[in-house]
Write a structure and sequence with these properties.
260 residues; alpha+beta; 4-stranded antiparallel sheet; 20% helix
């Protein structure tokens, strides 16, 4: 009977959703989360030794970087500032912005109805300060990031944005939870598309009644359609301090409701 190869110090089979790195000594493969190597750090490693091989071959070595001589820090005003960089954050915090009251329409949950939108249209952002009257269901106030492991699954792979680099990498829910609660974060990571409609967490969230009445997917999409129903129906965003995302088109062509 054929056996499935196992790897890493955890001795588990290969999982395509988890980042792995090969030891240059023993040639075995290891999960980055098991040996403390981040996926975006791997390109900077010249020779990698796993925890066992470090004892006989020495520690891993990093690639040598060119030394930069920058006695005076200057900002090139002809180039756009990188979103999420320290220069970007400092500049953003120093600015003041006009009030949004002129464009925001404030309603109560009862006022925001299908009849109201049919009569007045939906041409700008609407803010409902309290969820009363919306028919909105949400997780309890005690729900925290750590609960994602139970409700979504610790091994669920998610796309995470490295804010400083504005690049996407993959982490498991467990890896992100560990990062979120770590005392010393080396990076600023931002989760912008944790789709959970196919998980236990979906049972904790119910969209406002007016959203369900307006939904093309729920009301007009035929079960025998040639095209599958859109999968992005309920998603969670998680940002730590200094999380900024560059301008992008998300869920193009659709109206979105947010609960903050």
């Amino acid at each position: 009977m054929a056996t499935v190869p196992v790897y890493c110090i955890c001795r588990l089979p290969y999982d395509v959703t988890r980042f792995m790195i090969e030891c240059d000594a023993c040639k075995d493969w290891f999960h980055g989360s098991c040996v403390g190597v981040e996926e975006d750090e791997a390109p900077d490693i010249d020779v990698y030794h796993c925890p066992n091989c470090e004892k006989t071959h020495g520690q891993s070595t990093m690639k040598k970087k060119r030394q930069k001589y920058e006695p005076i820090q200057t900002v090139d005003i002809t180039r756009p500032v990188q979103n999420g960089s320290q220069v970007f954050i400092k500049e953003l915090r120093s600015r003041t912005f006009p009030s949004a009251e002129e464009v925001i329409q404030r309603l109560t949950g009862t006022q925001l109805s299908l009849g109201f939108l049919e009569e007045n249209g939906f041409t700008g952002p609407i803010l409902v300060a309290k969820k009363d009257g919306l028919g909105l269901s949400l997780p309890p106030l005690t729900f925290s990031v750590s609960d994602l492991e139970n409700y979504v699954g610790p091994d669920r792979a998610i796309d995470v944005v490295d804010v400083t680099k504005q690049k996407t990498c993959k982490l498991t829910i467990k890896e992100f939870v560990d990062y979120y609660y770590s005392a010393n974060r080396k990076r600023v990571l931002n989760v912008i598309n944790l789709e959970f409609s196919d998980t236990k967490m979906s049972n904790l969230v119910e969209a406002p009644e007016v959203v369900k009445k307006l939904s093309w997917v729920d009301n007009l999409w035929h079960d025998d359609s040639l095209f599958d129903k859109p999968k992005v129906t309920k998603y969670c965003q998680i940002g730590v301090k200094d999380s900024y995302t560059d301008f992008h088109i998300g869920s193009g062509g659709s109206s979105v409701w947010y609960h903050l």
